[in-house]
Amino acid sequence: DGITPARSVTTGGDGAFRFPAVPAGPFTLLASDPVRGLSGEGAAILGEGQLSLNLTVRLEPLGAIAIRVVQPDGTTPARNVHVVLTPGNVALDTDPDGRVVFNDLRLGSYGVVARDVRRSGVATNAVVTQAGQRIDLSLGLPGTGGVQGRVLLSDGATPGAGLTVILTGQSTLY
């Protein structure tokens, strides 16, 4: 209303809050969790002569993405694989069972990249669409192998000794 100053209180252990002596009329509540960076809001109208109004403010909905990474054989857990979730570039390493869980995720789309120490990697996407949702993904690392060969000079017979050979992969995970 331009006259009533904004006020703030801290919720109790049960999430309850109370603002005494609120003037009649429309108002907005904004609740924020500074630890997790979440917020929620609510609005209502306190009627003339109305002694109190009970309003529940919900923080924005959250979900989770649980990922299991396996070796190229499709069953062996891939431990210590670096898994990155974007946006935010949040990273975790898989446990001995090849698992990581990203909790407290806002609703939306996420990119997932899992990469092991041999530079083998796999990428996918996941979308958290509702509060409390847990998406379970299983990612299989692709196999790796060696590349060897020989460089010959333009005559096709003389070995090209001391030359540099560069491998450029087509994978976006390199």
Keywords:
mainly beta, 3-stranded mixed β-sheet, 39% strand
Plain-language structure description:
This protein has 174 residues and is an all-beta fold. The chain is built from no helices and nine strands. The strands form three sheets. Strands 5-4-7-8 form a four-stranded antiparallel beta sheet, with no helix packed on it. Strands 6-3-9 form a three-stranded mixed beta sheet, with no helix packed on it. Strands 1-2 form a two-stranded antiparallel sheet.
Short summary of the structure?
With 174 residues, this protein is an all-beta fold. It contains no helices and nine strands.
Indicate the proportion of strand residues: 35-45%
Shape: elongated
Number of helical stretches of at least 4 residues: 0
Describe the strand arrangement of the main beta sheet, using strand numbers.
5-4-7-8
Give the low-confidence spans: none
Structural class assignment: mainly beta
Main β-sheet, in a few words? 4 strands, antiparallel
Helix residue percentage:
under 10%
Q: Please trace the helix and strand order, writing H or E for each element.
A: EEEEEEEEE
The count of strands amounts to 9
Q: What is the average per-residue confidence, as pLDDT, rounded to a whole number?
A: 90
Radius of gyration: 28 Å
| Terminal-residue CA separation | 57 Å
Describe the protein's topology.
Elements: E1 25-33, E2 38-46, E3 62-70, E4 82-86, E5 90-93, E6 99-106, E7 108-115, E8 121-128, E9 134-140
Parallel strand pairs: 3-9
Antiparallel strand pairs: 1-2, 3-6, 4-5, 4-7, 7-8
